[in-house]
Each structure stands twice: as structure tokens, then as C-alpha cells.
Amino acid sequence: MIAASAVLLGVSLTTSFLAVHADREVTAQRDEAVAHNASAAATELSHRSPGLAAQIALAAYRLRPGRHSRDALLSTLMSTWTAHRAEMYAFDVSPDGTVLATGGRDRTVRLWDMRAPRHPRETAVLTGHKEAVYAVAMDPSRAVLASAGADGMLTLWDVADPHRPRRLSTVQTQTRTVRALAFSPSGQTLVSAGSDGNVVLWNTRSVSRPVRGLSLHGHRDEVRSVAFSADGRLLASAGGGDERVILWDTTSPAHPVKRADWRAHTTTALSVAFNPRTSVLATAGGGDRPVKLWRVTGTHRPVLLAGLDGPTDVVGSVEFSPDGRMLAAGSDDRTARIWRVSSPRRPQKEVALAGFTTAVLGLRFTPDGKQVVTAVFDGTAHTLPTDFGQLVIHACAYAGRPPTHDQWRHYFGELPYRRPC
User: What's this model's pTM, rounded to 2 decimal places?
Assistant: First the structure.
């Protein structure tokens, strides 16, 4: 009888344990599903009611902390404003991080005071282009801005006082549509490229009288992106529909040499960016790996280090952080993604921002690396601090009013009401 009682007690305890475990599993699965749905709803809500969206995302993150709910929370904490009433096609940040320049279909270039990143203020509207502005670039050595677009004109502006910018010069590029601009690190050379497939070097020692230099040939389609290495010795160009990236040695701008020419992506190649601290080049475009990292030097063929997954559509822009540890990409799948690439052979996902209404034009880090600016083709711009851990901890400082009980039931069903902040 004692033995039988012990067996029955063991069976009872085991049954009770299994029942409790099963109940916890059901609860965990329910919470996971509720948090996932609430996070997705928060990102969709962010452009209509950002305060409520942040509260819902925060509650979902606290219910089930994880990558999806964290990404949704960070997406709702972005500061958003309308930079252009029409499509935005280009943007860049000044070397000191205080000015953002944007260009768009409205044929204007707009300057924004970024000293308070969550509350940018428009300081000036630059006019003069007869068609859409597709490219802007800040001189890293001087307070000079270059702009160009569908009218084929290249204009240089003095933006030392962003409230009173002035035109320095305007020249005809002889390219029907200019799609890309980039200054060399010294600011002495400016590169323009576009619809004719050529890459044109300009001597910009005198910004009032830029001098056209050599045209670099090799692409069979319009050039969509150009970028200099940190030391100014290498220039990379992406050829759009020809799917190719070409690497040029521009140690002597008067005698550039083609060092590499390869098919970097399938369907299209849209963007190139050099890591400012290493010999790594990031490329973006189409295919099953729309973002890739390559080891490049001036004398050897580029070596593929990694293909980054995540985006489900073409990626039109890539950009490294100033310290070279992070890589950001904007995609046609309406997401903005950031990876940690300290080890370029083993990149790690950092964050995927969502909630945008159209394709993402691209991302730029401020020179101090503390903010990231996201531009979207719908004309909106967004800023977000890059210390994501601290941002999550102090999310209540950015969130709005707590949800009402009715709003809570709408997003969390019968779960007990909890004020997120």
C-alpha cells in the first residue's frame, strides 16, 4: 500500500507539473502572438498617431521582449517631419552635422538646422534648378554644397550661413540627367555621373569656377552612385542596369586608372560606399543578397566577404557609420536596416526600422555617429539616436499619452491593462 501510494503521488505530481508547464506554454504562446500583432499594428500606426504607436509598441516589448518587438519600438520612436511636399530624391549631412540638405521633385534644395535633431527647422530653400534634383553632396572640407538633377546643371552653393546661402557657380555637365555626386575627402575633386554612363571628374579648387576634367568610361547603363575611399585614392561607381561596379584609382586625378570591373549584383547595382576605417566596400542593388561587403585594394580584384540578408526587395542606398562599425541600408521593401559590421565576414543584424509608407531613399549618420537620418521617397525625413539600448530604456521620454482602456483592449484583447509609462 505504501509503495502504491508513492507511485500514485509521483504520478499526481508529474501530472500537475505537466499541466502547469502546458499552461505556461499556452500563456507564452498567447503573449507572443499578442505582442507580435501589437508591434505590427504600432508600426502601421506610427505615421498617423506617433505617440499612441510608441505606447503600444512599448507595451508589446515589455510583454514579450525580442527582436521583432524591439524593432517595432525603435521604429515608433523616430522623429518625423515633412521635408518636401513632393517626392524626395537626395539628401546629405554637413561635415559638422548641423545642416541637412534635401532635394526633390519640386526642383528645390532645402536646408535644415539639425542642432536639435528631434526638432529640425528649415533655414532656406535653394531654387534655380529647372527640373527635379536627384543629387546633393556636402564638401567635407568646406561649407560648400553641390546639387544637380534632371536639367543636367551642376550648382555649387556657399552654405556657411545656412540661413543665407548663396550661389557660387552653375555649369552644364553635358549629362542629360545627373544621378550622383561625390566630393573627394580633400574637397578638391567633385565627381558627377548619370544617364550617359560616364563618370566625370571636376576640379573644384575654385568653387566659383569648377573645371571639367576627364570622363571615365566603362558603364553600359546610367551610373546611380559614386563614392570615394577615405584616403581619396579609390573611386567606386555603380552602373544601375549593367549590374556592375567599377573601381578607379584616382591617386592622380589627371591620370585615373581602372583597377577592377565586376558584376556585383543581379538585376541592378544602385549604391556603393567605402568603410572609412578599413578597405571594405559595401555595394547594394538587386538579387538574393541585395547588400554585399567586399575587400578592395588598388591592385587586387575585390573579394566577397559577406552577403547581408534581410531586405526583401532591391536596396537603393548603403552608408557606413563614421567609425565604420555599422552599415545602414534603405530598401524598396519600405524598411531601413542597420547591421554591425565590425567583423565584415560575420555581420550582425542590429535593427530593422519599418512603418514607412513608401520605399526608403537612404540613411545617413551624423559625423559624431549619435544620430541616423532616414529619408523616404514620400518626402518625409526621420531621425533616431543610435544608442538603441539607452533609447529603449528611456522610451517613456519619447512616448505620448498612455492608451485608454478601450485602446488597450483593441490591441491587447483581454490582457490586464498596464500603463506602459
Answer: 0.91
